[in-house]
Write a structure and sequence with these properties.
Elements lengths: L2 H19 L12 H26 L5 H25 L6 H23 L8 H19 L6 E3 L2 E3 L1 H51 L2
Length: 213
């Protein structure tokens, strides 16, 4: 197994570890927020590996079928697991319907990409999709931290952790919906174009068959 695939596998291994840290069975639940900090650091590390494995695969020319299969699976499972855990861990911030919308968007885009691949074309990641990924990381981490801290006070500087989490999670929902629509529009244009090309190819082949002696 090459390095990029090993990094992808490490992200998959982090998922059950994250769920364990966010569960009531985690043994180091302290008044200082050790549980929240551990979960936040782990999720940030997992998010970093999300971009690192693809970068290394391209740079080292180590793009493999296994990597192409595992990478999107690891991404979707990581996001799904974190949101489902947060529905129970911090329901004041992550409501059930919020998790359903964001997770549903992930699987919708995956489905569109699978259909596009079977039709012989690809749907590139849009800027909205990239923005959604960044905001999603901020929302998950801040939602974890908001379970213990309402705000951080550093002298005259006050960081409203809970309100950052709420704002980020609702912004994630908004960007998720808009980017899903953007992906669908892009998919529809390409699938329509592919269908027209197939019809033209079919008509031309029939004409050639009809004109053949």
């Amino acid at each position: 197994m090459n390095l990029p695939n090993s990094i992808t596998m490490s992200r998959i291994v982090m998922i059950p570890l994250l769920l364990w840290i966010l569960s009531p069975h985690y043994p180091w639940q302290g008044a200082s927020g050790e549980q929240e900090l551990a979960a936040s650091v782990l999720f940030v590390l997992a998010s970093i590996t999300d971009g690192l494995d693809g970068y290394l695969a391209r740079k080292r020319s180590q793009i493999t079928t296994m990597g192409m299969l595992l990478d999107p699976i690891a991404d979707k499972v990581m996001v799904t697991a974190a949101l489902i855990a947060l529905v129970a861990y911090n329901p004041d911030v992550v409501k059930v319907w919020i998790a359903v919308v964001i997770i549903g968007r992930e699987f919708l885009v995956s489905g569109l990409r699978s259909i596009a691949s079977s039709e012989g074309f690809t749907i590139e990641a849009s800027d909205l999709g990239k923005l959604k990924t960044v905001i999603q990381i901020v929302s998950v981490v801040s939602a974890i931290l908001a379970h213990h801290w309402y705000q951080w006070v550093f002298g005259v500087v006050v960081i409203p952790v809970k309100w950052i989490a709420i704002t980020a999670i609702y912004f994630t929902v908004l960007v998720s919906v808009i980017s899903a629509i953007d992906y669908f529009v892009g998919f529809w244009k390409k699938i329509d174009h592919a269908a027209k090309d197939r019809r033209k190819s079919f008509i031309l082949s029939r004409r050639k068959s009809a004109s053949a002696p």
